[in-house]
Design brief:
Blueprint: E1 11-15, H1 19-25, H2 28-31, E2 36-41, H3 44-49, E3 55-58, H4 66-83, E4 87-92, H5 96-105, E5 110-113, H6 124-129, E6 135-138, E7 151-152
Helix pairs in contact: 4-5
């Protein structure tokens, strides 16, 4: 999606802390030459790992927390409209859901990366984001059994 000045918007990298963030950080060779904006919780480990990056804090925790789901939905709408990202990328967790739903409604492409440690069943976030995902990436052949539309990229970590 282009901005008013005709330039493509940033890549929006949406993540929770921990392993989900580690997956996106492993993609550094791909994203470091691009304009980007991170959406992650404002926890000390995230601040340390994303030092020097442009970061917007999401609301956490997200697991089974309806008030934070609503807060993150408002955040997603505000950021997607203001930033007009070219792409939304996430490896989860729950914060990804409102961003993917709204990106889909705004016709912004999305990429969901299924985490490496779920080899025998899909993650809840992967299932919820599925209908709103433009491209799904998996890291193990066994993940293709429950995501037959996915692209196998191999382990990121």
């Amino acid at each position: 999606m282009a901005r008013d000045d005709g330039r493509a918007g940033p890549v929006l990298l949406v993540s929770s802390q921990g392993g989900h963030l580690a997956h996106l950080l492993a993609l550094r060779p791909w994203w470091e030459g691009r304009e980007r904006l991170w959406v992650c919780p404002g926890t000390p480990d995230v601040a340390d790992r994303l030092d020097g990056e442009r970061v917007t804090s999401s609301h956490h925790p997200t697991t089974r927390n309806v008030p934070n789901l609503l807060r993150n939905t408002v955040l997603a709408l505000r950021l997607l409209r203001r930033e007009r990202p070219a792409l939304v990328v996430s490896a989860g967790a729950g914060v990804a859901v409102p961003f993917f739903v709204l990106a889909w409604l705004l016709r912004i492409p999305t990429v969901f990366i299924e985490v490496y440690d779920r080899v025998d069943s899909p993650t809840m976030t992967g299932r919820l984001c599925g209908p709103f995902t433009t491209r799904r990436l998996v890291q193990w052949p066994s993940q293709l059994e429950f995501y037959p539309d996915a692209h196998l990229v191999g382990p990121l970590l």
